[in-house]
Each structure stands twice: as structure tokens, then as C-alpha cells.
Amino acid sequence: MDLHKNRLSQIFTPDYIAEFMVKNIKQHYFSSRNGSTIDKIKVLEPSAGKGIFLKYLLSEGFTNITAYELDQNLKIPLLKSYPDIEFKFENFLGSDVNEKFDIIIGNPPYLGQNYNAQIFQELVKNYSICKKYFVGNMDLFYFFIHLGIDKLKPGGLLSFITTNYWLTKSKKTGIKFLKPHITNDCFMIHYIDLSKIKVFKDAKGQHNCIFVLQKKYANEKHKKIDKIIDVIQLKQRTNHFNEKSNGKLFTDILNNQNSPYLLNYTSAMTNKDLSKKNSWILKYPLDVKNVVEQIEKHCRFNGSTSHLTDFFVIRNGLILIKDEIFILKENESLKIVDTDMFIKIDKTFVKLSDEEKQKLKKIFKSKVIRPFSYDKSDFSGYLIYFDKNEFKNQNLTIRNELIKEKYPNLTTYLNQYKGDLENILRNAKENIKDIYFPRRGSLITQYDIEDRRKLVNLEPYYDKEPKIFFSYISNSNSFGYTKDSYYATSDTYFLWGREGKNDIDYLFLLAYLNSKIMKFLFLAKNIMIKRSKTKLEEEIPIPNTSLFNSKYQLELIDLIRYFTSNVTQNIVSIDETILYKLREISPNTFSQIRNEKYPRRIIDILLFKLFGLAEEDIDLLIEKYY
Ligand SMILES: C[S@@+](CC[C@H](N)C(=O)[O-])C[C@H]1O[C@@H](n2cnc3c(N)ncnc32)[C@H](O)[C@@H]1O
């Protein structure tokens, strides 16, 4: 694809999708308006391409159609193929907002703002709609939705096919204006999830969706009317683009045929649940919601559901000025002989003092993280870790002198790379003298009960306190743990307890985070561990163990802690005497557990019992919907 095409984002919609979308929107339109005649309906296709939507609009009997297309190369073929359509070969984003339509349909151009900042700058300069709704991290098609909404008549319908990422984004990532605009002015009435099928032959790894918005009438806005959202989930997983079988699937949808590849349901989310600033989980069947609620029932503190963010802050591990310099590799820049350590300075190895040795910490990358633990042997090297608190209240120049005095060999080693380190800091617009300390990850800000801000030094936590950590990109709920010294690079996320949350039940929490229940919650709430932490912080409900107070539940919790502790220490054998109490309280649970070999399985079973859930039900839901 050449640059020109890329800028226009010319990816054309397959026939069967356009046919489906046109027939679908026609059905929606006439279902709410008896007796209206098709020639009165004003239709808009804002980015016509080669005109595939126009073809089906005409064949479905629409006559009053306006279409925009920016690419002048398409002008002649379009005019030739569709002589009865009113074309405007200009930028749709500059079109008159006062010209209103009953139906807007199409496949708008996708173009991420991040990599195309200049194009967006030009748009903002030239078009008022872009100026009004521009925000970093957005996509070009957001403007098409914004202007589309503004150009709809009350009751009018807009249906686009787009990528689906915007639905699960939160306000910090580009949807700041889009979600409020949609929820204020429209109802989402139909959502078709295409993430399991490949729609566009040439677009790599793209997850798509079709949605239908209905513009609110003034009284619907005024009375805060709510509406349901119909969902269609396609289950087919074809790696190869297969127009024929996908086409058949869409004919099935239109004809209301039962198909093993189709799920058709009303979302447990209604329009009033659609947040203006957070993720929308439209793919939310009622039977899934019921189980989520059953879990969340046990996560109430003072009447409301608590989430991870109420107890923890999630922070990356250590960001160093340059890993290759600060992380010493054994037999390269570091030699270890018995308990002595030697650092390489000017081609010779110099012995470190005991004080200096204490400043070297084993450091790990996220690849070593396993559920419940980590691979101890696979550390990346020894990190030079100075603690800012040791020299606090000193200005930088004095601090640098003191640190050199106290740790002469380590600082001499670092000074060999002074120019390099200073350059990195200079480019990052940071203080170039600050070459001895980690750039980030050694301190966190906390607020005490009176909301006073204080900086907490993390060294003692990295060194010994219980810690839960996980990879910052992962599609599974794999949470590591240790009470030992564990320093990690910035590709690791740590859960640091908030101020005043000192009584966290780490073993129980670890069991829960790594459980099959959590796996289900990840699927149900579409939680993924990505660079952005907001979803994790705000969507993972945290159980309130004080709500479990029957003798049976208390015993289950004790056992969960016991087995979790074993798993963290890699103990696989099971001491059966530990189960004697359980045998008395619940012979049933006891015998189920006795048949299990693996402690991790046992932990899962105990958690299901504790939450009052049947594992088979959850298996069925996962199988059915995900
Ligand atoms: C993703 S393609 C889809 C084309 C067609 N709707 C289809 O589904 O096959 C987007 C089209 O929008 C056109 N386009 C891009 N920016 C535009 C703009 N600002 N105004 C009008 N058309 C635009 C491109 O040239 C391209 O043909």
C-alpha cells in the first residue's frame, strides 16, 4: 500500500458485510416506523470507496443517497457505476453539520493519531468538528462518528464497521470525547462482535465490530430513557479469510437461523450502564453477569464492591538509566569468588567492600514470573541499587560526593560510562548529574489518612516484604509472589499496598488472583494485562474475607492459605492430617480434595466452594462465550 493509500486508509469492505449492514439497518429503521416510505429516507455514506455500500443501498430500494469520497481517482468509476447518487468528492469532515440524514452507513477510514500526528494537526486546523473533538491517542474514524451523530435526525440510525478497540478504552486513551458524545446523544442498539473472524483480507490481526447507534429524541434525553443492547457474537475462528463461509454466517443472522457459530442475545449491559469514561463490555450475557455478581457479592466493603485499586497501587519495577550499565553480569563486569565480589574497572577486577556488596541486588525480568512464584535461578544479573533516602536532605552535588566516598568502586565503575549516562538523561530532559540512582521505581507516593503526600522508599519492600507481581503484558492471570529479595525490571508490575492497608491477606489474595475464578473474571470483564493499568485496578473485585464467617468457610480459607503457601514454596506433597477438620465439617468437599494430586487444583476447588460456585457452570460459560 503506498503512502497516499495509507493516508486515506483504503481498505474495502467485503460484499457480504456491506449487504448485511444495509439489510440490518433497514430492518432496524422500519421496525420502529410503520408506514414510512423508502424514497423519503435520506441516506449518507461518508467514505464511499469503490461504492460497495451504495450497491446494496440501491438494491434494497433506497433512492435518496449522498456519498462522500476524498480520493479523486475513484471519481470517474463511481460516477459511472452509480449515476443516481449524489456524490461529493471532498472531505466529509468539512461537510455541513446542518444537513441531516435518517441513515448513515459505512466503513470509515481508520488511522491512529499516534503515528500520524501531522495529519491530525492539519485536520484540527481546517475543520471545526476536528477542533472540537480532537484528543491524543484517538483514531480518525472517531471524527466520522462525531460528525455522523451530529448529522443524524432524531431517531436516525448510524451503522459503522470499525476496529473494536475503542469500546474497551478508558478516558486516558483517546475516547475522552467519543464516549460522552455517544451516550449523551445516542442509544447503542445493536452490537455485532466480529473479533473471531477475519473480515479484511489484508489487515493484520485486526479485531472488528459492527454497531448501530440511534440518535435520541429530545424527550428521550430529557427523561433519561434507557434501552437494551442486542448482541450478536460470531464464534467461527477462521484463520484464513473465507468470504464464502463468512457470507453464509451473515445470511444466517439475517434469516434468524440457528447456527452453532452464532450467539444472539440481549446484553446484560443496557445503555444506562455505558460509562462515559471507562471500558464498555457489550459482550456481556446475562448468565455470565449472574456469576460475576455471585463473585462480587463476596467483595463488598461497607456496601460497595471493592476493587484492586482500593488496596493497591500498581507500579512498574525499576527503570534504570541504562540496563546494560546498571545490571552487572557475572563473568563480564562482575566476578564472584566464594563470598567475595569483584567489579571490572579499566580491564581489572577490583574487590568490593561489604557495604558495596550490599548495594548489589539480584534483578529479574518478567519472563521468570510463574503463577504463585518465579524462577529463582533465572535472574538477569546484579543491579547497582543506591537508595536516595540514605543521602536525603542533601543537594545533588553533596550527595554525589558522599556516595563516591562511601561506595568508591561502584561509583568509579559507573563513572566509566558517565558520558553515556549523561546523554541519556539529557535527552530525557532529566538532571544530568543524577547518574547513580534508578530513574523510577524506587519510590512511590502515598497519601496518609489526612491526605498528606509522602514518598515511600521501596527498598525494604523489594528486599523482604511479601510481594505480588506480574508481567506488564500478558493474556493470562499469572501472578508471582515472594517474601524474599526480588528486584525487577520495568516490564514487571508490582502490587504495592496502599497506606493503611497493612493487614492484606497475601496468601489468600494470591490464590484468588491465580484462580480459575479470576480467569473467568478476566474473560467476563474483558480484562487483559497491557501497559495500561486502569482496567486491572478498577475491574478486579477483591473479596472481603470477613464476610466468610461460617465454620466451613473459615476452614476453607485456612486450607487455601495452607496450600497456597505450599505452592509458593514448591511443596507438592500433601499432609493429609491437615484435612481432618474439613472431613468433619464437609465429608463431601474432603473426598473431592483427597482425589486431587495437585495443590493448585485443590486451591481452585476450595475457592469454588468458598464462593458457592459450581466449576462445571463456569466451564460451560467459558466454552459457550469465549
Ligand atoms: C476504509 S475505506 C472504506 C471504503 C468503503 N466505504 C468500503 O467500505 O469499501 C475508507 C474510504 O474513505 C476515503 N476517505 C478517507 N478519508 C476521507 C475523508 N476525510 N472524507 C471522505 N472520504 C475519505 C478513502 O479514500 C477510502 O476510500
Keywords, separated by commas or semicolons:
globular, 626 residues, binds S-adenosylmethionine, alpha+beta, Rossmann fold, four-stranded antiparallel β-sheet, nine-stranded mixed β-sheet
Strand order of the main beta sheet, please?
3-2-1-4-5-7-6-8-9
Quickly count the helices: 26
CATH class of one domain: Alpha Beta
Strand content is 15-25%
Instruction: Please tally the β strands and state the result.
Output: 26
Oligomer: single chain
Give your account of this protein's structure:
The chain has 626 residues and is of the alpha+beta class. Among the domains are: 14-41 and 103-284, Rossmann fold (3-Layer(aba) Sandwich), CATH 3.40.50; 320-427, no CATH class. Strands 3-2-1-4-5-7-6-8-9 form a nine-stranded mixed sheet, sandwiched between helices. A four-stranded antiparallel sheet has the order 12-26-23-24. A four-stranded mixed sheet has the order 13-20-17-25. Helix 3 links the parallel strand 1 (42-45) and strand 2. Helix 2 (15-31) packs across helix 3 (52-59), helix 7 runs parallel beside helix 8 (178-185) and helix 22 packs antiparallel against helix 25 (599-611). The longest helix has 18 residues, at 551-568. The radius of gyration is 30 Å and the shape is globular. The mean pLDDT is 94. It binds S-adenosylmethionine.
